[in-house]
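Project outcomes to date are best conveyed with an example. Our students and postdoctoral researchers have been running inverse folding experiments weekly, and each run begins with a structure described purely in tokens. The record below, which covers 287 residues, was selected by the lab manager from last quarter's runs and is presented without edits.
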């Protein structure tokens, strides 16, 4: 028999961060939620990783959890390399009661969607992206790397996935240097991820986007959750902000593929399901 004192509808238990800085960050968020920002990556954090990125969707409990938490904090920010509109669509964020405090910082902050207006604001795209997009199919074919790779159009960036290749990691390793050379010719950089190499303009990363947004809204504390190498700049930004008096909690959406992130996290949870449970536990503490 189950524990009669515990109901299936009880909120999940709030886990304790393993580091003093993380415990301070969580305490600051709970003490003054109206000055706190909850910032989250999308793929691998709110949405499970899938072979085809176009099929990615938020965990079914993510939006309900966010709708409960968002009114209790200064803001919820989804920070992603995807176009803002795509993240909104795949996340199911539009028109949801309770998400009025949600923004999506797409393309590493080059685009912004906010729930209040439902519109996307964006800067002019880098011309190198269009040049790489046109050259990339022939480039991959010429170096014999076309079979098993997949190109993802991201508007202000373009990504090459190797997850479908016969040997995904070997294909990833073989493509890193050639794609870096291609990107450099067009004034771009390559951002590696979980079996994906993204070619995008320099100066765009989640750390820059997050730090600028936190300054804009006057945040006193921040929770940032991510799962991939592209989240390392955001981790670095939070670590730097701590020295400026902004309390921070770093959460890794657990992945055996990216130990660099879990090693720097204050708290590791079990993928998107674990992230949702954490958000629900925090919201319950704020009731």
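After processing, the design step wrote out the following sequence:
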């Amino acid at each position: 028999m189950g524990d009669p004192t515990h109901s299936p509808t009880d909120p999940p238990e709030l886990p304790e961060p393993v580091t003093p800085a993380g415990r301070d960050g969580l305490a600051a968020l709970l003490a003054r939620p109206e000055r706190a920002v909850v910032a989250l990556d999308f793929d691998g954090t709110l949405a499970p990783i899938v072979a085809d990125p176009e099929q990615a969707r938020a965990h079914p409990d993510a939006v309900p959890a966010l709708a409960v938490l968002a009114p209790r904090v200064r803001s919820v920010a989804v920070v992603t390399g995807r176009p803002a509109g795509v993240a909104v669509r795949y996340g199911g964020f539009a028109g949801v009661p309770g998400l009025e405090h949600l923004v999506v910082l797409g393309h590493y902050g080059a685009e912004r969607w906010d729930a209040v207006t439902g519109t996307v604001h964006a800067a002019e795209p880098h011309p190198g992206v269009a040049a790489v997009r046109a050259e990339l199919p022939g480039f991959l074919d010429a170096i014999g790397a076309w079979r098993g790779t997949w190109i993802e159009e991201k508007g202000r960036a373009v990504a090459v996935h190797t997850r479908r290749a016969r040997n995904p990691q070997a294909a990833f390793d073989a493509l890193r240097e050639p794609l870096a050379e291609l990107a450099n010719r067009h004034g771009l950089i390559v951002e590696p991820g979980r079996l994906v190499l993204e070619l995008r303009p320099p100066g765009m990363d989640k750390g820059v986007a997050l730090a600028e947004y936190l300054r804009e809204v006057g945040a006193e504390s921040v929770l940032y959750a991510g799962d991939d190498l592209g989240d390392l700049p955001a981790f670095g930004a939070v670590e730097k902000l701590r020295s400026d008096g902004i309390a921070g909690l770093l959460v890794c959406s657990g992945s055996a593929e990216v130990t660099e992130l879990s090693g720097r996290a204050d708290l590791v949870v079990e993928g998107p399901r674990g992230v949702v449970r954490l958000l629900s536990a925090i919201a319950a503490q704020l009731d």
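The chain is about 35% helix and 20% strand. The radius of gyration is 19 Å. The training component of this project remains on track.
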